[in-house]
Amino acid sequence: MTSAPWPAPFAATPLDATVTIPASKSLTNRYLVLAAVADGVCRLRAPLASRDSDLMIQALRALGAGIQEVPGSGPVPDLVVTPIPAGHCVDASVDCGLAGTVMRFVPPLAALLSGEVSFDGDPAARVRPMAPIVAALAGLGVKVSDGADGLMPFTVHGTGTVRGGHVAIDAAGSSQFISAILLVAARFTQGLHLEHTGESVPSVDHISMTVQVLRSLGVTVDDSTPKHWIVAPGPIAAFDVVLEQDLSNAGPFLAAALASRGTVRIPNWPLNTTQVGDKWREILPQFGATVSLDDGVLTVTGGPEILGVDIADTSELAPSAAALCALATGPSRLRGIAHLRGHETDRLAALVAEINALGGNAVETPDGLIINPAPLHGGVFHSYEDHRMATAGAIIGLAVPGVTVEDIATTAKTMPAFPQMWADMVAQTTVTEA
Ligand SMILES: O=C(O)C1=C[C@@H](OP(=O)(O)O)[C@@H](O)[C@H](O)C1
Ligand SMILES: C=C(OP(=O)(O)O)C(=O)O
After folding, report:
1. Which of 46, 151, 345, 354 could form a disulfide with 384 if both were Cys (CB 3.0 to 4.6 A apart)?
2. Enolpyruvate transferase domain location, by residue (predicted)?
């Protein structure tokens, strides 16, 4: 079900706003999976509450984890997770929605249980690549039925243990294939030696996040040889963590400073983080912004114009970056993002179609986008059920009058409050100037 067309707020004057961002999807869903296989009861403080995290919670409950909401110190309840009992028997169906983290991370966990777990999701999820997960499970001695086409739906037939050992996959389509197997590998009888056989793995920061989270819980991971990850069998310590805010989802708000030639501040920016969104601090100056991090507050001020850029490996930051490229005064190139064709939608095709529909000049390359300057006009920016397409439309709408985002509610995938947060950000400026 899609929401009513959303007239994107236009910033008639430079923004001057402070914004607080909800918790990281990638960290929340990693910690949820790890809590389900940890050595004791775990607590996630200030986690993300969104469609993707809800889908993960439902999936883990279906597999036998106990997950309780308890009051926390902020607006979102904490989650207390009782792990899945050893040798648990299960017969379950998992709805993955459109969540890559659910459709990739949960099947290897299901393989550790006794019984059948079927996986399916939204129609758009049924075309997202899954073959390396199916191949990895088969290589680890786990039976999977109906996944021969490398797509959902399929069923994992667990026997209560996974042998583990060496397995080779081509993870060029998504870093999540690697993260998925690593997350539960310490529970495999022989541990894991995972090898990537393809050219290069995308979104390497997300793999580093997985490795660092595992190490923080006492899991031994050797990633010293490129394209190889070795996980020793052993315990996964119970934990109590406070989730960082989602620095990728901070992107549209920071981009708003550039789109309006104003200033946006985000407090509580983590000083040491594994999130790819920390790269905004390197990326936004290339677009002409001034960026500073003082006392944990990230402040971004837009320059007099948005400069064209040539940037590689922006991963999930690419749609927000592409929106800025569409507003830039010079030509831009985004490289190393071919795998975005397998995200919530084919993001390269979608960005080209929507930017060009507003009068822009964007073309696909084999591994990314070229976006040349062109005067934009109002019109409908389609979302393709993709939260980051919807927020890209919002960024452009700040600078171009008359942009309407079709289905802004799709931002609920990772940030259900986005429309209100965006309106509040624009309203802060109005209040300041009144
Ligand atoms: O592991 C994760 O949490 C993610 C990994 C990345 O996937 P890809 O490697 O498919 O880009 C990223 O784009 C996605 O939003 C989240
Ligand atoms: C690619 C993304 O999501 P997913 O976790 O569904 O892969 C994303 O959030 O940009």
Report:
1. 345
2. 13-420
Give per-residue pLDDT as tens, 387-402: 999 999 999 999 999 9
* Domain 6-22+245-433 bears CATH identifier 3.65.10.10: yes
Handedness of CA 225, 178, 160, 240 (dihedral sign): positive
User: At residue 341, what are phi and psi to the nearest 5 degrees?
Assistant: -65, -20
* pLDDT(217) > 70: yes
Q: Which two tokens stand for residue 126?
A: 């049924």
Q: Per DSSP, what are the bridge partners of residue 81? A: 42, 67
Q: Is 414 in the pocket of ligand 1 (CB under 6 A)?
A: no
CB-CB contact of 103 with 125 (8 Å): yes
**Residue with token string 């999540």:** 176
Q: Which atom of ligand 1 is nearest to the CA of 176?
A: 1
CATH 3.65.10.10 domain residues, the chain: 6-22+245-433, 25-239
CB 23 within 8 A of CB 76: yes
Which pLDDT band, with edges at 50, 70 and 90, does 1 fall under? low
Q: Answer whether 351's CB lies under 8 Å from 392's CB.
A: yes
Mutate to test the pocket of ligand 2, among 343, 384, 391 (most ligand atoms within 8 A of CB): 343
Query: pLDDT tens for residues 221-240?
Result: 999 999 999 999 999 999 99
Helices 176-184 and 204-216 pack at an angle, to 10 degrees, of 10
Q: Residue 287 in contact with residue 254, Cβ under 8 Å?
A: no
What CATH number has the domain spanning 25-239? 3.65.10.10
